[in-house]
Specification:
This protein is an alpha+beta fold. The chain has one domain. The protein is built from 2 helices and 2 strands. A two-stranded antiparallel sheet has the order 1-2. It is globular.
């Protein structure tokens, strides 16, 4: 999964409650492999970190994710 914060429709408004800002640092572009995606989902489901808030208006071959 490619996370590109530059294409996120809710960038700014949702950044402070997004796992990208909490664990990965300032908004940018990141690529997560399946094990990393699973680990972040488990942490978010248990309430330890916020979920991924990415909402792409024009995903470029990546997955569309929203909160």
């Amino acid at each position: 999964m490619v996370i590109d914060c530059g294409t996120c429709e809710v960038r700014g408004a949702a950044c402070t409650d997004c796992v990208v800002s909490v664990l990965l640092g300032p908004p940018g572009a990141f690529e997560l492999q399946a094990p990393e995606q699973t680990a972040l989902a488990i942490l978010a489901d248990s309430g330890l970190v916020p979920p991924l808030r990415l909402v792409c208006s024009n995903p470029r071959g990546g997955q569309r994710r929203s909160a």
